[in-house]
Amino acid sequence: MANTLFQQQMPKLSKDNYESWSIQIKVLFGSQDLWELVTDGYTEPTQQEEAAYTADEKKTLKEQRKKDKKALFLLYQGLDESTFEKVAEAPNSKQAWEILATIFQGVDRVKRIRLQNLRGEFEALHMKEGEAVSDYFSRLLVIINGLKRNGEKIDDIRVIEKSVERKIGHSSKTLSCTFSISFFVSSTFAHDFSIVGYSPDDLTSMDRLIDLFESCMSKHGKTYQSFEEKLHKFEVFKDNLKHIDDRNKKVSNYWLGLNEFADLSYEEFKKMYLGLKAELPKRRRESPEEFTYRDVLDLPKSVVWRKKGAVTNVKNQGSCGSCWAFSTIAAVEGINQIVTGNLTSLSEQELIDCDTTFNHGCNGGLMDYAFSFIISNGGLHKEENYPYLMEEGTCDERKGVFDGHCGTELDHGVAAVGFGSTKGLDYIIVKNSWGSKWGEKGYIRMKRNNGKPQGLCGIYKMASYPTKKK
Description:
The chain is α+β, with helices and mostly antiparallel strands. The chain has 15 helices and six strands. Among the domains are: 2-107, no CATH class; 275-281 and 308-397, Alpha-Beta Complex (Cathepsin B, Chain A); 401-458, CATH 2.40.50.170. The chain is elongated and about 120 Å long. Keywords: Disulfide bond. GO terms for molecular function: cysteine-type peptidase activity.
């Protein structure tokens, strides 16, 4: 039992960890009263000398041999096969330890020299005049990776500080992108990409810049898979902040700030969030003219449909390029409220899953095609009945009034919970007991007034209901 415990706890020796490994072994052997034997050894007598030993001397020799074998056994547990072969012929633990020290301390000295050189390169590294940010960043990563391979622990903040020792604001990028807005009319327009608080003083101090980055990423729950990714994101964040500050100095009718997208480059943002496919083939009836106001009299000075109750809460498309579906739904929700007075949140997911003739789900689409789909589909599910997944799913078209073939031999009981009519079809609302994934969230609308006394599927044959007195 004791040997098994030691085997599980023994630290493993590698070419890169001799110094720390030897410290752990010293502590372990000291706790087992073995370390003095390993460092000082013991004298192994000849057979003739041992024969002349007293009983006490023989007892002491036996204990020393036993402890030495125990020390050797424990040492072996921390060695791989190739290293074990180097000490397998050592007659005692002292010699085995000295062999390991000779082999690995030489390696350790080389590593210390290499680390010293890499530390010097790290401290001396500066961005060259005219050097591209990506080239400087690549040189920095080579040194960082070398330090890590040789066991150096590098503080994240120190490396980020090094990455911004170049002049802040160097090679700032102008970011632009195109958004599509559909607001009760389907229209598109170009708009500068704004990465939306900060203080201009944050750009004057490296520490403040780093603190701002850490604070912003923490606020939005951002985490990164590797240190290299974090450095890349910091570079992007810094360039975006410089763009924001430059723009805020030049314009006065709006102000930019930082938001959850501040660590994304334009290409990353475009790939994850922009889904308008303006290059899709146009419908034949589409007018080549852009939208213009005409035949309109007495326009009000302003219209805010949010205050008029025609706009649902802001939704989040996530990293799915489904903006075309969200803008379409916003327009339909709005016009529906304006005409009927009812504001109903509709399903973007249904468009993503089912409108696939011309549109492409999370890979983009066009609002015109989405409007046509809604018309041909006879409307859309409510959002609560077909919730958003932030990814493409399977089209769930389990809806409508059922009038298909079924027998009248009864083998299942259900509950009728209402009735109504749609598109000239009268129906009974039936509550089933097969879970909410069946039918229309667990319900089915079955055709009534089908001309048969037993009703569709024999639903009238054994109808029963309770009554209750007050």
